[in-house]
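Sequence, please.
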């Protein structure tokens, strides 16, 4: 399970990069990168 905290908007998209072991979640105001163990790697506010 992946829990992204402090998101005020809904998730708009999701994709995986299985080759490199990452998942990406797109929200209204940010993009979040997590590894396959569900650890957040980066979050960029857009």
């Amino acid at each position: 399970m992946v829990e992204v905290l402090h998101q005020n908007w809904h998730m708009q998209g999701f994709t995986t990069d299985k080759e490199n072991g990452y998942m990406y979640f797109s929200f209204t105001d940010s993009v979040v990168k997590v590894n396959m163990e569900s650890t957040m790697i980066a979050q960029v506010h857009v």
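The chain is about 0% helix and 55% strand.
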